[in-house]
Amino acid sequence: MNQWEVFVMDVAELAEGQDIELTIRTLNPGLHKYTYKRVRAQVSSDLKKFPDQLQVRLGRGQMSKSRFSIKVLGDVQRMPAKYL
Amino acid sequence: MAAPRSNREFVEACIKSGDAVRIRQEVDWDNEAGAIVRRACELEAPAPFMEKIKDYPGFSYFGAPLSTYRRMAISLGMDPASSLPEIGREYLKRTNSEPIQPVLVDRKDAPCKENILRGADVDLCKLPVPLVHDGDGGRYVGTWHAVVTKHPVRGDVNWGMYRQMMWDSRTMSGAVFPFSDLGKALNEYYLPRGESCPFATAIGLSPLAAMAACAPSPIPEPELVGMLSGEPARLVKCETNDLEVPADAEIIIEGEICPDYKVEEGPFGEYTGYRTSPRDFRVTFRVNCITYRNNATMTISNMGVPQDEGQLLRSFSLGLELEKLLKSQGIPITGVYMHPRSTHHMMIVGVKPTYSGIASQIAQLAFGSKLGPWFHMVVVVDDKTDIYNWNEVYHALCTRCHPANGIHIYRNAPGTPLYPFATPHERKYSIGSKVLFDCLWPLDWDPVNDVPTTVSFKSVYSQEIQDRVTSNWTAYGYPPVK
After folding, report:
1. Best B121, B122, B125, B274 residue to mutate vs chain A (most A CBs within 10 Å)
2. Is residue B447 in a domain?
3. Cα–Cα distance measured from residue B378 to residue B397, given in angstroms and rounded to the nearest whole number
4. Which candidate among A10, B43, B54, B464 keeps its CA 20 to 30 Å from the CA of B119?
């Protein structure tokens, strides 16, 4: 199980039951903790529905009480190829 | 005592004088190091030199490098007990001297080249980048550093302290304000042309190089370092671009600023003592190469409530640069001081009030200058008020500033997105408002019959009475006055 975290201005941005794009950071221990990636994902307030866990922070870093499970469907590469 | 020429010399000097402590037990980069620095700032304690970092053998941290005036004095090679006015006079003397050009050294003489990561080896996570505050948007690579860039047409070199967050192993994002030198170069040149802007981030600088990167001086930073230290700054060419960086820096990160791509940055604990600016898509730095010294030390500034080095150093340099500006205009000021606890928002100016409107002239020069976006309050007091004594300034502000006639508001000025009081719209577009508190007695008042007389021990008693009371003070039963 992976631990992820997302920053949102409003928890309503985490729409359940549909594919959404999110910028998430890993909370897994190790050197790469807190690094980001852009993904397509599904989230659910049912913590057992998906394999990974998603923690939520608000715009100024406040921890939200809302918790989700998350399924990462795939990475989204926004960076132009010339920089890769 | 000579000014320390590197961060290492500075750490040793601070430990020797008791202004830094050596922490030998392991410290976690994930919040713990940041919390140590924050507490040291709030207690005005010695700077923490953390020798052992979890997950990162061989690296160390030096936190809160310049968050006290004692350490600022050490950085200038002065006695740590020097008073603030003494430090200020020394800064003015050195920065009014002849420019000292930097020298370019061979890469074999540059300690920052001892380790080089290129290509697939480039990974910011190989550096002990700390999570400075719990809840920050990321691990911050650049909190006490210099982002080196060069204007593509004029060739001006800029060292600026633009915060940089690690987004992924090769990407950083940062806050670059539109009124800053880098912000102007990006908006005027690179972004319209879609050209990448080469950059190099230097971390673990000598304290005077950090001071130069933080100071809003019009003097090019490499020359300013030389003027402050009395000897040429040692620079070396980057590995992947034409920029020149401090050869004795601990870590150099080279890359390009992407003109056509942005990633999220923030939130971050800021110098105002708040997290004000929200997470947003900001300037994106793509990393191509990392070089670093053996046993490299990463410097950490932990911004928050007073006092940290951002507040202290910016207050110091903003005040002194404004003093230079006002003197260059022939205004009879007695001094300029910005208390770090104002989080460099309140400028206090002492002036001999020789003509009407002088406070307004001072405020307009201050707000209209390059320094202006960094503060929004100017308090003008007379030449008899000690600008360094907050009790006197506070008394003048509360008693001499007329609520209707003495407070002047300036709207639609440049501001920063970090002003905690600003509306969301103002933050988004860097719109500021400014205020002048004119604490001068009006010159059209009769000085004998209209101007109130101050009632204090020093102003209402004869010298003979003052001397008698002072010399008998302990005989009256009081403890000695320190």
Report:
1. B125
2. no
3. 11
4. B54
Q: Which residues of A touch B136 (CB under 8 A)?
A: 61
pLDDT tens digits, one per residue of B68-109: 999 999 999 999 999 999 999 999 999 999 999 999 999 999
Q: Does A60 touch chain B (CB under 8 A)?
A: yes
Sheet with B407-414: list strands edge to edge: B333-337, B346-351, B377-382, B431-438, B407-414
Q: Are residues B167 and B229 in the same domain?
A: yes
B353: CATH? 3.40.1670.10
Check: CB of residue B345 under 8 Å from CB of residue B120. Answer: no
Question: Please, which residues have CB within 8 angstroms of residue B239's CB and are 6 or more apart in sequence?
Answer: B113, B116, B118, B254, B289, B291
Comparing CA positions, the residue from B252, B267, B282, B250 lying closest to residue B172 is B282
Residue B472: DSSP 8-state: T
Pairing label, strands B377-382, B346-351: parallel
The parent domain of residue B96 ranges over 7-300
pLDDT reported for residue B417: 87
ipTM of the complex: 0.97
Tell whether A1 lies on the interface with B, counting CB pairs under 8 A: no
Q: What is the pLDDT of residue B1?
A: 78
